[in-house]
Each structure stands twice: as C-alpha cells, then as structure tokens.
Design a protein that fits this description.
Elements (H helix, E strand, L loop, with lengths): L1 H18 L12 E3 L8 E3 L1 H9 L3 H10 L7 E7 L3 E6 L1 H14 L13 E5 L11 H19 L3 E8 L4 H17 L14 H14 L7 H4 L8 E2 L11 E3 L2 H16 L2 H23 L6 E4 L4 H13 L3 E4 L2 E4 L10 E4 L7 H14 L4 E7 L5 H11 L7 E6 L2 E5 L2 E2 L12 H8 L1 H8 L8 E4 H5 L6 H21 L6 H4 L9 H22 L4 H20 L7 H25 L8
Parallel strand pairs: 5-6, 5-13, 6-9, 13-14, 15-17
Antiparallel strand pairs: 1-2, 2-4, 3-4, 7-8, 10-11, 11-12, 15-16
Helix pairs in contact: 1-3, 2-3, 4-19, 5-14, 5-15, 5-19, 6-7, 6-9, 6-10, 7-10, 11-12, 14-15, 17-20, 17-21, 19-20, 19-21, 20-21
Length: 596
C-alpha cells in the first residue's frame, strides 16, 4: 500500500515542478512511514517539510498544494495535514483487511520482495583461523552474518555466503608445530612446551591420531628440534599494577618461530602431515559446529590458493605506481588513499605479508562480478578497513563496493555475575558450550538483537527462562499458542476455513485487532529496512511487538466464543499472525515450535 501512496506523492511532486512551485532538479528525500498512533492515520509523509525550503513556502502551505495535486488512490479514505506539515493518510475499511488476503496467498513468501533483485552480493563472515574450536565471539559473527544474508535474499538479492580459511599463515604453522611437539611428548620425548604454542587438549588428540596412523615415523631428537632456538619468554611471578605479566627475559615469538623453522627442516615433507592433520581436524570441527547452528556456506575459500593472485595483485599495484622499496621491504602507498601509514606487502626475506593475501583475496572477489561485497569482521580488525579499501582503489576498482561490518564482543552473565571467558591455558567458552546450555534458538536470537557494533551482555539465565522477559520464548510461545488454539477448534467441532472466514473479517472491530492488522501489513517494510541497513534486530524487535500485541489481545478476548462468525474472523487473524511469526523467525534462524 505504501508503494501506491508513494507513487501518488511522486505524481504530485512532478505536477508542482511543472507549475514552477518546486525546482525541476529538486531531489525527493522524504520518507513515508507507518504511524504509531492510528488516530494520525495509517501512513505519514514528511515531504512538505523536506521540500518547503526548496519551494520557499511554509510546510503547511506546501502540504496544501501537494494534496491539491495528489491523484485519487482507491484505497485511501482521506489525507489530511497535521502538526507542522505532516501529511497523514487513512486507509479505507476494505484496505485494512487486504493484508489477510496477501498473507494467505503468499504464505511463507509473505514479506519477501524484489527490492534488491539487481544485486549479486557476497557475504563473507566468521572466517576464524582454523586453529581451535569456535568461541562465543565467533558465534555472534556466525549468527549475524547468516541472518544478514537471509535478509538480503528475502529482498531478492542473489547472495553467496563465504568462509575465508586462513590455512597458509603463521598461525597454522604454530598449530602444526604445537601438534608436532605434542606428538613427540606422546612418543616419550621430554620437552618444555612453548608458552606461545596452542595449549588445548585438542592438540594432543590430533597428535594421537597421527600416532595411530603412522606410529613413530616422525620422531626426531628433541635436542635437534630446540637447537639454536632463542630462549622462550620468562615472566616474573607477580603481575604489574595493571594486572599484566612482566617479562624477565626471552621472547615467545622468536622462540616459537625457531621451533617452526627447525621442525620444517627436520621433517621436510613430513611437516605437511602435521599441518594438514591439524587443519582438517579443526576445520571439520568448525564445519560441524556451524552446521549444527544452522549456519552454512556456499564456499570455503582457501588462502593457500592465492599464490598466483598475490603476484597479480602486487604486480598491478607496482604497475600503477603504488609500491616502493625501503629497508629491503616492499611497501604499499596506502597513505595516498587516507590510511594512517604505508603498509609492508613483502618482507626482505621474500615472504609476502598477511595484508598482501588480503589484497589478493579482495581482488579475487572483485573479479567474480559481485555488485556488493560485505565483510563481517571482529571489532578488533577495525584498523584493517582503511588499508583494504585503499588497496582496492589503488588497483583501479571502486572501494565503495565493499562494506565492512564490525561485530563487537560478547560477555556472558550468569546469576548476575560475568562468566570467565577463558582460562590461562587458553580454553575459551566455546560456541558449542553456549549452544548446549541455552539452545540454538536462544543463541541465534540474542546474538542478533543488538546492532553489530554494540557490545552484547548475554544473560544465560534469561535465555533459558520461560517468561515474557525472555523475548525468544515469548515469540515462540505466541506461535505455539495459535497452534494449540487451532487444535482446540478442531476438537470442539469448529469447522474453520480461511477462505470462508474472510467474509467475516469486518467483525474485527476492536482497536487491538486493527493494531494487529496494521502490524501484519508493516512486516515487508521491516524486512527491507532490516536488509538494507544490515540490522537483523529490526526483525527481532518487530516479532516481539507482534507477539506482545497478540498475547494482550488473546488474554482479553475470547477467540472461540458463542458468535460463530466472530470466532471465524478471530481464527483468521490468528493464523495470519502465526504465519508472519514463522516467517520472521525463519529469517533469524530460529524455529517456530507447534507446542511448548
């Protein structure tokens, strides 16, 4: 309906331009929104206030002229000027019930549009290093990314979901070497495990798997593994005033790098056994975890496949004059594009940097023909945005195609106290732990109920409570309540047929019923707005409001009463609420149970 009203307003604007009231080049940036108070109509436009300066008229005077040039819209009962110059539109009685026909005709497709049909969008999210299980922070990125992709698909965009697997970097070498050292321990060797190695028990499990398959094939003397390796870091027994460890001697980074170097040279091709065993064990765990969470990807993109693309990207930057050599390193002139400093892309030892891989990866994305790229990163990566966009522009592409959405951290709370997220051994609270405690539905819902850049305090007690304060329970209960109502109708002899019930819709005369109808009609607009702003919480909030309206109405009014026609009308209203709740929950990745 808002489309018809907007078209009428556009017609009025063109008429006023032709009359000289508005400049011919005036750009209409006004908004048409549903009113919160139905005494102000069903829709309200601020067009007269937006255009008043351009027309050199008072908003109310301009609003009068807009109404005079407004073509007749069949479903509008009246339009009137309110306040400083708002134009309020009132739908006629029949139009109030049109949403019931629309929902019944479209069912699970209701709310889906073609608003973004021209777009081919890649959404890259999670992309956690395959070095350990996903923790609760990764879970937020997973839920958020999947829901953003769902919303964009619901508005007609062709969406591809991608996970960037960092399988070629230093962190994977640290994991591979950690696995090798645990392998040596399990084979009876004595050693001091590095402080900067991966400490979790899962590393021992991977090492044991290699022993089970290959025995002691890869055992080398520990003395050779540690030969000429710089001393590991040594800490003072007491923390400093800020609670940080105090370094007495050694260097944990140089120590682990030395162990990596020696392990690679001692094992030669055998080193890849540990690298690949660790990679596949962790990656398979991540895939299983996300799959159980309802998060799937169209592509798992391997960083290791980027070798040629890195050369192409650096050659392109060099040919365009954006690389230079200094102190033996190759630098990218990112400051010429607004970055705070230039960035190294190749070190003096000939190795390319992680940033060079990032450049190549985004070049690969751009060459795949997407209209839009969406990267979802942890908030600690905010400093990378400027340099990646700089590289895109420097290679001759348009960096405005790339949108980077940052996901803030998550704190867990139980019993009014913050839950310790990790121990000194590096064991984080995993996504799997959270899902086991609160369930997939609560996790998916609460992960997206705030803007991505806002911190989340995740209340574990609330997430499992069966009360109206638990929003996901309250929404799901509304859906289940309607299912139960329909079962009761069937068992008490009420023969409900939605098509037949439509003739009695005029009996929905209560203000609460009118409010529910208006809320149902607003759903498609909410989906488009949530998709275009990458804000899934708008859908979550909508569902909370719809559930609250339904529960309040249901508690105050009898659906299955003595008036058979009214009962039919109220059942019709209820099943439409049920359908919209289900549609919205599906976008959020949350189930719509039939009983609770």
């Amino acid at each position: 309906m808002n489309t018809a009203i907007q078209a009428a307003l556009d017609h009025a604007v063109q008429s006023l331009k032709a009359q000289g009231t508005l400049p011919s080049d005036w750009d209409n940036t006004s908004s048409l929104t549903r009113t919160k108070d139905r005494s102000h109509g069903d829709f309200a436009s601020n067009i007269a206030m937006i255009a008043s300066k351009a027309a050199a008229m008072k908003p109310r005077d301009l609003a009068t002229q807009i109404l005079e040039n407004l073509p007749e819209v069949a479903d509008i009962a009246k339009a009137e000027i309110a306040g400083p110059g708002f134009i309020n539109f009132f739908l006629n009685a029949d139009q109030r019930f049109a949403v019931l026909d629309q929902i019944q005709a479209q069912k699970e497709q209701y709310g889906k549009t073609k608003a973004n049909a021209a777009k081919k969008i890649q959404v890259e999210f999670v992309s956690a290093n395959p070095t350990s299980s996903l923790h609760v922070g990764h879970g937020r990125g997973a839920a958020y990314g999947m829901t953003v992709a769902n919303l964009l698909e619901a508005t007609g965009a062709k969406v591809e979901r991608e996970y960037y697997v960092n399988d070629a970097g230093r962190q994977m070498d640290i994991l591979a070497t950690s696995t090798y050292l645990r392998y040596l321990e399990l084979c009876g060797q004595q050693l001091v495990f590095p402080k900067n190695a991966y400490q979790g028990d899962y590393v021992k499990e991977i090492a044991q798997g290699i022993i089970d398959k290959d025995g002691d094939t890869y055992v080398r003397q520990v003395a050779d593994v540690y030969r000429d390796v710089p001393e590991d870091v040594q800490y003072a027994p007491e923390l400093d005033a800020d609670g940080n460890k105090v370094v007495i001697s050694g260097d944990k980074e140089k120590h682990i790098d030395g162990l990596i170097y020696n392990s690679q040279n001692l094992l030669n091709a055998g080193y890849r056994v540990f690298h690949q065993a660790a990679l596949h064990a962790i990656l398979d765990d991540i895939k299983d975890d996300l799959g159980e969470f309802g998060v799937t990807f169209d592509q798992w993109f391997s960083e290791a496949t980027l070798t040629e693309k890195i050369d192409e990207a650096l050659q392109t930057l060099d040919q365009r004059g954006y690389l230079y050599e200094k102190d033996g390193n190759i630098w990218f002139k990112s400051t010429e594009f607004g970055d705070e400093k230039d960035r190294v892309v190749k070190r003096r030892n000939g190795q390319t940097t992680y940033f060079a891989s990032d450049i190549a990866y985004h070049l690969n994305k751009l060459q795949r023909g997407y209209t839009d790229l969406i990267d979802i990163w942890g908030s600690d990566h905010h400093g990378y945005i400027a340099r990646v966009k700089a590289a895109i522009d420097a290679m001759g592409y348009d960096s405005s195609k790339l949108t980077v959405l940052l996901v803030q951290f998550v704190s867990l709370w139980r019993g009014g106290e913050m839950v310790q997220m990790s121990s000194r051994s590096g064991q984080f609270v995993t996504l799997r732990d959270l899902r086991k405690e609160v369930g997939n539905d609560a996790a998916r819902f609460y992960y997206v109920m705030r803007k991505s850049e806002q911190h989340i305090d995740f209340d574990l007690d609330l997430a499992v409570s069966q009360s109206k304060d638990n929003a996901v329970y309250y929404i799901q209960y509304a859906h289940a309540r309607i299912c139960r109502m329909l079962e009761k109708a069937a068992t008490t002899g009420v023969n409900f047929d939605a098509t037949q019930a439509r003739q009695f819709a005029a009996k929905l005369e209560l203000d609460a019923e009118t409010e529910i109808l208006a809320k149902l009609a607003a759903y498609p607009e909410v989906v488009v707005r949530a998709a275009n702003h990458y804000e899934p919480h708008q859908v979550g909030n909508y569902l909370k409001e719809l559930a609250a309206l339904f529960h309040a109405w249901y508690n105050e009014n009898k659906v299955l009463g003595d008036d058979a026609e009214l009962s039919q009308a109220r059942l019709l209203l209820s099943i439409n609420v049920q359908q919209v709740l289900k549609n919205g929950l599906e976008l959020l990745g949350v189930s719509a149970p039939e009983s609770m």
